[in-house]
Amino acid sequence: MSFSAGFNIRQLTSDDEALMRSLLGMFGKAFGEAQAYCGNQPGAGYLRQLLARDTFIALAALKNNEVAGGLAAYELQKFEQERSEIYIYDLAVAAEHRREGIATALIQQLKQLAAARSLRDFCAGGRGR
């Protein structure tokens, strides 16, 4: 999905290991926790399996082929009712790209994905920057 501000949103797949690592690096810098996000990253097989899961959603906002922002979310099956909801775990935009509509575009893309899955509920429980 492309936007007039010169960025596009891409949902990561099992073929996007390198892009996922770039996303982790951006999260680490944006949150000031590079060690937590980059110090002990999982292996390629683990990332491929994670990105292949229907219950994990990783979105990257790309500007000039660089990760300018991103979102990581999970689809959680609820136990109190027969329904699922999307849980936003991390949402960040690189400092130099803030105030360009990237975070809003990431959330709008996630809403479209949720609608395609017939989900309506969102929870923001992780962190945002």
Salient structural properties:
single chain; 129 residues; alpha+beta; Aminopeptidase; five-stranded mixed sheet; 5 strands
Write structural notes for this entry.
The chain has one domain: Gcn5-related N-acetyltransferase (GNAT) (Aminopeptidase), CATH 3.40.630.30. It is 34% helix and 32% strand. It is built from 4 helices and 5 strands. A 5-stranded mixed β-sheet has the order 1-2-3-4-5, sandwiched between helices. β2 and β3 form a beta hairpin. It starts with 7 loop residues before the first strand and ends with a strand.
Largest sheet: 5 strands, mixed
Which runs of at least 5 residues are low in confidence (pLDDT < 50)?
none
Per the CATH scheme, the topology name is Aminopeptidase
Terminus-to-terminus distance: 22 Å
Helical content stands at 25-40%
- Tell me the strand percentage band: 25-35%
Query: How many H/I helical runs?
Result: 4
Instruction: Going across the biggest sheet, name each strand in turn.
Output: 1-2-3-4-5
SSE order in H/E notation? EHHHEEEHE
User: What would the principal axes of the Cα set say about the shape?
Assistant: globular
Query: What radius of gyration results from the CA coordinates?
Result: 14 Å
* Count of domain modules: 1
CATH superfamily: Gcn5-related N-acetyltransferase (GNAT)
Please, what is the average pLDDT?
88
DSSP, total strands: 5
Q: Would you tell me the structural class of the helices and strands?
A: alpha+beta
Instruction: State the name of the first-level CATH class.
Output: Alpha Beta
CATH architecture: 3-Layer(aba) Sandwich
